[in-house]
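Notebook p. 47: complex prediction with zinc ion.
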Amino acid sequence: MIDYKYYPGGKRHVATFSYDDAPPEDYKLVELFNKYGIKSTFNVIGNNLASADYGVMENDAKELYKGHEVAVHTETHPWLEKCAPTTIVSEILENRKRIEKIVGYPVRGMAYPYGTYDDNVITTAKSLGIVYSRTAGESKSFTLPCDWMKWVGTCHHKNAQQYVDTFVDTLDNLWVSRCLYIWGHSFEFPNSADRGFDFFEEQLKKLADNRDRIWFATNIEIYDYVNAQKALQVAADESFVYNPTQIDVVIAKDNEVLTVKGGETIYF
Ligand SMILES: [Zn+2]
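Predicted complex, structure tokens below:
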């Protein structure tokens, strides 16, 4: 039997983060993520990049977010489902263009401003090349979304402790592959309810201490990896498997864990 329970490195679990708006507090937050070798997705408001009071400076963005993912969060942060159709298009498209010029790779991820959307917003975003989008709210679970355009994270960072502890305490659970997904805004950390950067660093440390069993990935890396798994072409009698993608995929064949490299066929 072939199964797809594994992430890169043969790890069974993935942890990911998502931070919105690109406020100036992102400088401090990125420093923390980098200290522990943990990746995050940063959803950038285009207009914030132009203001030192409200955002990361445009000239700093490429270097600051290096190694992380930069994703769409629109130019002006409107309630997209309340916008005219042409505005929905320009808010997403102009944001993509602006941040792609900075980072130099195709930007395909998004977080909805305020976490809100309707069917038309989803259809428009997909037509503009967006492949996943995060909403607000908490799934309170460690599962990946059935619909990538309605991706709900596990929890907001103020509630991270209980989910990080549960996640870490059950890493040796052999039956389920899980995804811990924490989201928030770096400007919230000084608020008492959000318990500060020190509290957040404690959570990162607990995860980093278990990096031999946790894959740290950006949102788009998870999306791409899961889709590469789904693209695997398996012989009807499971005697061989072909990976038509450029992403190495880890599988198990009769409980033996192995990597099917991009473009490779493995015969059993
Ligand atoms: Zn926002």
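Notes: The chain has two domains: 12-226, 232-267. The longest helix spans residues 85-103.
Next step: compare against the earlier run before touching the bench.
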